[in-house]
Amino acid sequence: MPLTEASALAERMSWVKESPSSRVADRVRAFQAAGRTVLPLTIGEPDFDTPDHVKDAAIAAIRAGETKYTSANGTPALRRAIVSRLLRKTGQSYADGEICLGGGAKQLIFLAFLATLDEGDEVVVPAPYWVSYPDMVALNGGRPVVVEAGAAEGYKITPDRLRRAIGPRTKWLVLNSPNNPTGAVYSAEELAALADVLRAHPHVSVLCDEIYDEINYGAHAVPSMVTVAPDLREQVFLVNGVSKAYAMTGWRIGYAAGSARLCSALGTLQSQSSSCPSSVSQAAAVAALDGGRDFIDRTVGIYRKRRDLLVSGLAAVEGLRPAVPEGGIYVWTDTSALMGATTPSGAVLASDTDLAEHLLDTSGVVVITGDSYGCPGHFRASFALSEDVIREAVAGIAHSISLLRR
């Protein structure tokens, strides 16, 4: 039935796009429902189960009747756990009023843009970027200013490019470290150089998306902007959550730290939208944040082996150039050398989408294309999968590419 005039959708719905990750996941499910074997290297969440002590805390909360509304900004117990975690990680002591809670880090990013962007305000977004940043900016009236951060720069924005991108309407710089999709991590020195630029532009805030900071393969902890440049603390909004580090994607708890004024605004917005985060999930998140590092250390060790397996396998395929991720659960691979190749059916690969279709049709392997991340000529492959599945997928990719004529 066509929409009546009274129920017509808002104009913004004519240009906002569904998340590419969600779209690909739906396609995988459709192929599986049709009986086709697929090897989805698209998984955007840990394949481990939530730790038992976290689940036990949730069950205890349910039995204790902790199933009612909480404050829009969550429980004092969870805010205390977040303050303690941030002190350990950043060396910065945050007050209770400088902590925000939400239904996942994604919601907090959206609310931060909603609270701060007026029509035409600009947000600097380095590409490759997480798929939702530009649409979140645009949905809230802003204009994403996409700045290329290519392989030559280690897929990280440089101070010079940041300086050129900032204008009088710039409200935010988005920094995602470790980065999704590339796995790139900004060093303390690189953050310090960006901080030097930001000091000259006090009207620009920095949204630091650190959701993958515990999945880190370096010798040192992932540095944070507030540690490197504590004088910019009022300009920095740290966003994190329990989804990736503790395999709690479905529990939907995110947290953030920033100025008391911004956190108060986000609490107001949440009170008018989702009311509050889940009370039971909050109890589980307290157990996760206060429960030590055993689970993180064990799973990161497993991820490291999977990462090395996938990187070495892709690097052995002619025409693919994978980057070694320093953090996160994805391998970012340059496929530009394969553009112009011809499939057995005579089709010419003119884009990374064509290559992804060829992989799916000939080997059942599913990847997410680089254009989804603002960087065509690449694909993202997840290693949040068993080693056997990774080996099978790499063999499938190698077979598919061997069929091409170049």
From TrEMBL:
InterPro entries: Aminotransferase_I/II_large, AspAT/PAT-like, NHTrfase_class1_PyrdxlP-BS, PyrdxlP-dep_Trfase, PyrdxlP-dep_Trfase_major, PyrdxlP-dep_Trfase_small
Main enzyme class: transferase
Keyword annotations from UniProtKB, A to Z: Aminotransferase, Pyridoxal phosphate, Transferase
Record carries keyword rRNA processing: no
EC number, UniProt record: 2.6.1.-
Record keyword Kinase present: no
Residues annotated as domain Aminotransferase class I/classII large: 37-397
Cofactor(s) for this UniProt protein: pyridoxal 5'-phosphate
SUPFAM superfamilies referenced in this protein's UniProt entry, alphabetically: PLP-dependent transferases
PANTHER family referenced in this protein's UniProt entry, alphabetically: ASPARTATE AMINOTRANSFERASE (PTHR46383:SF1)
Family under the similarity heading: Belongs to the class-I pyridoxal-phosphate-dependent aminotransferase family.
Protein name per the record: Aminotransferase
Organism the protein comes from: Streptomyces tremellae
